Amino acid sequence: MSLQTVLALSLGFCTFSSSLSAEKSGCFKVNNCKCIMKDGSGVISLDTMGDASGFLGHCKPVPTENVSVNAEILLSFSPCQPFSHLEDLTVTGSECTNVAACLIVRYHRLNRDISRCMSYGRHDGNEFHYNGTLKTLSVSYFARSERPLTVVHYHCDPNLSRSFILEQKLSAEEPLQIWVESPCACPNGCARGDLGLGTILLIGLSLSAAAYFIVGSCALRPFRSSSGVQISPEHSVWCTVCFLCAERQPNTSHRTHLTPCDC
């Protein structure tokens, strides 16, 4: 085998290995607020990042360029809970109904403040992308087009006690970019005790085992035979079964033909 062949095989193996590791570092979307890690390390829940009202940022100023001196741009964002922005005294064009992100353009004109609310993405149809190297979950929020209006990057920081918006970037060419630092962006970082599939199966197995031993101790009778100690159902168990079957039969003259129980 030549040196070039060995190098080609080594390069192909490294590429294949890196692609496998990249696939394992992703996450499966469960719903609009949760994804399960492909490597089985846990669950990332976005509903644990907001405040009591669900907001991660409420009317938070957004730094922008080429904005009039008399105008300001504010952002309200909720990672999981849809909201509507109608609390402004003067809203001339509100589009923020059941949204994930709302951009508020507020400017002063004719001695009064005028605000315009614009939807910058909804929870329905959002897309999850996890980067295992950066430990960052990026979620894209869409409105009416195939192009996302807002992309939020949730970075895992287990040393924090709460989630907060680190940076925001708004431009005309790209979607609104939001960087969030949060302990809840770590797998099982802010778990609320959700019952996973393994937990449910374990509970079901435990209940089945308990029922098996209880029924066995009440309905089975041990006896000694030539082959050793054996167990068999009590006669009353069969009588109970026959009685239940008889009670479920329709009330007709053929009921007397049921096989009686010899108790």
Q: Enumerate how many helices there are, as a single number.
A: 3
Q: Main sheet: which strands, in order across? A: 8-9-10-12-11
List unreliable stretches of 5+ residues.
5-9, 11-22, 252-263
Mass-distribution shape: elongated
Averaged pLDDT: 77
Q: What is the total domain count?
A: 3
* SSE pattern, N- to C-terminal: HEEEEEEEEEEEEHEEH
Q: Helical content, roughly?
A: 10-25%
The total count of strands amounts to: 14
Distance between the termini: 84 Å
Strand residues, percent: 25-35%
Keywords: Membrane, Signal, Transmembrane, Transmembrane helix
Signal peptide: 1-22
Transmembrane segments: 195-215
Describe the structure.
The protein has three helices and 14 strands. The protein is an alpha+beta fold and 263 residues long. It folds into three domains: 87 residues, no CATH class; 63 residues, no CATH class; 54 residues, no CATH class. The strands form four sheets. The chain has a five-stranded mixed β-sheet with strand order 8-9-10-12-11, with no helix packed on it. Strands 4-5-6-7 form a four-stranded antiparallel β-sheet, with no helix packed on it. β9 and β10 form a beta hairpin. The chain is elongated.
